[in-house]
Amino acid sequence: MGTFPSRARWSDDSQIIYFQYNPEKNPADSTYKIQVSSPKQIQKVNWKEESAMRRDQANWNTDYSQRVYLSASDQISLENMKTGQKKVLLNWHSRVSNPTFLADENLISFVSDQNIFTLNLSTGVVKKVTQISSGSKPSKKSNAAQAEQVKGFVETENLELLQVVKERQEAEKKRAAYREATREQAEEKFVYYTEGKSPANLQLSPDGNFASFTYYNSSSNKNTKVPDYVAASGYTEDLNARPKVGTDPTTSEIGIYDLKRDSVYFIDYSKLPGLQDLPDYTKDYPDKKWDSTNRKLSLFGPIFSPDGKRAIVQARSFDNKDRWIAEVNLQTGELKNLDRQRDEAWIAGPGIGWTFSGGTLGWLPDSKHIYFQSEESGYSHLYLLNVENGNKKTLTSGAYEVFDPFISRDKKSWFFTSSEVDPGERHFYQMPLMGGKKVQLTSMTGNNEVSLSPDQSKMAIIHSYSNRPEELYIQDLKPGAKPVQITNGQSEEFKAYNWRDPEIIRFQAEDGAMVPARIYQPEASKKNGAAVIFVHGAGYLQNVHKWWSSYFREYMFHNLLTDLGYTVLDIDYRASSGYGRDWRTGIYRHMGGKDLSDQVDGAKHLVEKYGVDADRIGIYGGSYGGFITLMALFTAPEVFKSGAALRSVTDWAHYNHGYTSNILNTPEEDPIAYRRSSPIYFAEGLKGNLLMAHGMVDVNVHFQDVVRLSQRLIELGKDNWEMAIYPVEDHGFVEPSSWTDEYKRILKLFNNTLLND
User: Fold this and answer.
1) Bridge partners (DSSP) listed for residue 327
2) To 5 degrees, how large is the angle CA 644–CA 649–CA 653?
3) Which residue ranges of the chain lie beneath pLDDT 70?
4) What is residue 186's predicted lDDT score, i.e. its pLDDT?
5) In a 3-state reduction of DSSP, which class is residue 679?
6) Largest Cα–Cα distance in the chain?
7) CA geometry: angle 233, 234, 235, nearest 5 deg
8) pLDDT above 70 covers what percent of the chain?
9) What per-residue confidence (pLDDT) applies to 152?
10) CA dist 132 → 112, 199, 227 (Å)
11) C-alpha to C-alpha distance for 99 and 119, rounded to whole angstroms
């Protein structure tokens, strides 16, 4: 194909763009650069220059004039951003982390040995501000008292007989008691003992009055094993893999350390509204007794306001139905709800975050407003909320989604990417901080992945289109400014073929929804009347768009199929990303429901509008696409004559917890959802021709999935299926020989079953 750029980023002076590139066809990408003043001269960055650019755990002051960072694991340095001067601030005796400017920018905090310290930039004085010990709190009983033991006969008799020995022992007791008394006075300083727990995420509030830390309490879930039959040792070796759905999740608790009052207390979420609310699906189990106590939550945060006087946290229920954003009372640890987001399906969407991530969540510089994203309107948008009066303001709105918003360095604007122009395009915008008119800054049709220069005058853009892979462009930060192309990485072989720009269409589903799809149509003279429907993986992923697909191999395969006369349809079925909350949650409690009926309706549309023979339609896909392929052949055999299911889930009770419990709840609590969503229960419906392909060292969707389904097909007496196994492949294939073998088999399947009677 060629070589294409990725991960564009800027030098501190906004004069150089760095990016990953590989024009020399090395085993891996390297860092390259261009000067803004001479953008056509692409240079490889040597390792010394690249090493000199590293700034581990960097943190800037408010006006970005200074930066602190780790120059070694035990060393903190300060850099003047105007002069470029660097100096070592601290050589410490052990590892350090998280150097951070406080509100008083003459002070920085850092973490070492599970405690927080401050460093005064003027004096160089280091102060330990927390007293945290991983041990247990000592008993109040004095050491002297603990040493006192009941005397035996021999010792008692000896002390009665030898007066000098007795006097010496009494004198030693008095000395020990005196030492203990002075030691107790010296140790009156507050120490918080963790009782063996390991505090994580230690941070100091910007005003230096509070610290916080998190305890993560991991559950002892049983991990799965994936056998590696072709390990280098020559022996079968077990690979450790994830637990299965329904396992106990990791819990968290957040401690607040009041440095002025020398006390530690934990965030209390017991008063959040709706903690006992049961999800609607419980109505399907009238005979089951449900727990009426408060639901368990995960906590993320706290995020301190810039002045340090306030803090917010995110709380999420483990049943995936609720997300709370709440203010922490820093004096007590109690929470005051600011915004509750509830979804009877599951909370998610762009910028919403997940269990231990807050997503888009933070404070404006005024320490009065917080910002976050929510799907309250049906699409993920950006909101402000005044914590003093509770007023909430919508900053963006409409039938589109917002991605990756951030505040400008001058604190006057928002920058973000959105799909406002079209669900299949991504453009970069600027908007006033408190809301107002948005300005579209990119104009190239497709995807525009923007890296903004530090002086915020220029954009480095990684852009691609449907039939053109990524290239690097540079553009002034002005609407209507012309982007200048920097790279041109397509190989001559790639350029020699006329890659199709598939048409984006919408067809009507059985429930009236308009389903987006990409269609590849052959020339009339080559049209063979057969069609193939491709099902993308991941479920929540978008593939009907106007940029270069991450499924580039499949895209090329679709061009090949079209050359051979096939009509190819690629559908963004229900659950695909990019179309808002209702589309995202369309598969709740029934995978293989609307997501499958969208494929069936797509097949009908091909017959009705594109002249496809209803008896010659195939389907294929990998991972989630493999699952849908199985459901299609098992439950809609009258529609699909053949299908290739690649690395497919066959029983959702055997997949992971984080993904599956969102959509189907857990098999213990909602067995109905798992029973109607798992292909293994419908294998008797197979009538067409099935190819299954799976990597044997797949630690995501385990090889066990297709092994169990194979046994089921054998027991059912089915003989119209075959399986290709790939001993060295994980979920995503790596070896070209494996990809080639797999697609040769898929093509053979379709040619033999869809073209020959």
Assistant:
1) 312, 336
2) 155
3) 139-151, 178-188, 757
4) 45
5) helix
6) 122
7) 90
8) 97
9) 74
10) 11, 9, 43
11) 10
